[in-house]
Each structure stands twice: as C-alpha cells, then as structure tokens.
Specification:
The N and C termini lie far apart (102 Å). The chain has 150 residues and is mainly α. The protein is built from four helices and no strands. It comes from Glutamicibacter soli. Keywords: Coiled coil, Membrane, Transmembrane, Transmembrane helix. It holds the Pfam family DivIC.
Length: 150
C-alpha cells in the first residue's frame, strides 16, 4: 500500500516482491475518463465548426479574386469611355469601322481576295542551296532536314 511521505522524509525501504505475488499497478481513475470524454466532446463539436470556417474562408478568397477581376474590367471600360470622349479617336474608329471619309478625300477599295503570303513559299526547295533569310543555326538545321527528307 502506498503511503504519503512528508517533505524531507526518506522513503522506507520496500521488501522485494516475491515470485508469483501480484504487483499493484496504477489505477485508471475516473478523473482521466471524464477528461477524455470532455476532450472527445469538444473535438466532435469543434471539427465541423473549423471545417465550416475553412469553407467560408475559401469562398471569401474566391469572392475577393472575383472583385479584383471586376474592378480591373471596370477600369478598362472607364478607359475605353475616356477614349470615346476624344474626337480624334472617334474619327479614327469611323474610318476603320464604317469607311467614312472626310470632305475632299477619296476612298479607294480593293475588291477581291487578299494575296497569299509569298514569304513562306519563297524558300527554295533545293537541297543544294541554303536559305539566306534564316539565321545560320536555323539554316543549318533546315539544310539537314531537307537533305534527310530528299
């Protein structure tokens, strides 16, 4: 049986435990069980609240990003409105969009299809000639490629 000592008192020597005799273990007290139940209750009550808080914080961050994007769009639209207040910009847009001309000017319109880009087809197809318009590394790779495919 455990006996409390007073401060400064030496512990009494205990007799050695004989073989087969049970040794007293620390008992599991009711206080520890109550403490575990209280902690478990708080954990069960706190987990959904923390999860709800994290979900709301994610939504708030998404809304802040959306607000920032809309403010940037608003600033762009305000700049466009400011451009339309300029008479020179209005004249330029009228010329480009609806082909208006100033008095005394003549409008020439070319009818037909646009010509194809000649620069892409101007390269020679010969494996013996180097394309001069390319940098030397690209010309080297081009000549190797053409020699491998012919």
């Amino acid at each position: 049986m455990a006996v409390r000592r007073k401060p400064g008192q030496k512990p009494e020597p205990q007799a050695p435990v004989q073989q087969g005799e049970p040794v007293a273990a620390h008992r599991f007290s009711g206080r520890i069980a109550a403490l575990i139940v209280v902690f478990a209750f708080f954990a069960v009550m706190l987990v959904p609240t923390v999860n709800y808080y994290r979900t709301q914080m994610a939504q708030i961050n998404e809304l802040r990003a959306s607000i920032a994007a809309m403010e940037a769009q608003r600033d762009e639209l305000k700049a466009e409105i400011a451009r339309w207040d300029d008479p020179l910009y209005i004249k330029q847009q009228a010329r480009e969009r609806i082909n208006l001309v100033m008095p005394g000017e003549k409008l020439y319109m070319v009818v037909g299809e646009k010509p194809e880009d000649q620069s892409a087809e101007s390269g020679n197809g010969s494996t013996y000639e180097v394309r001069q318009e390319l940098p030397w590394v690209d010309a080297l790779i081009d000549s190797i490629t053409r020699s491998a495919t012919d």
